[in-house]
Amino acid sequence: MPSSSSSKDAKNLSRVLDKIAGMDEPRRSVMQHAHDIIMAAAPDLKPRIWYGMPAYAASASTPALVTLRNDERLNLALTEKVTTAPAGGADGTLTPAAWYFDSIDADAEKRIAEIVRSAVS
Length: 121
Description:
The chain is of the alpha+beta class.
């Protein structure tokens, strides 16, 4: 018999996949691709819905670390629960925490994976 946490994880994953499936094309395909990248980059993250968005956390009972947002523009974001550092250079003390995208090419795929891995390390 599956544990209650694995059952909750499966239910949360199903909710995330349903949320993505309910999006209109071409965004649905792009968001599904982003979800797949996130899960491959950090397979221990637990998908769930966080404030109405697909999100990814260390466990079903901890705050989300990464979110996917489908508003006027698609957005990958790190929450305030991720340890971040200022960008330096031209951005000085500003800390990068959100990235907009309309499509995902090989470079974007690599960068999304890097961002997600940095959020969980």
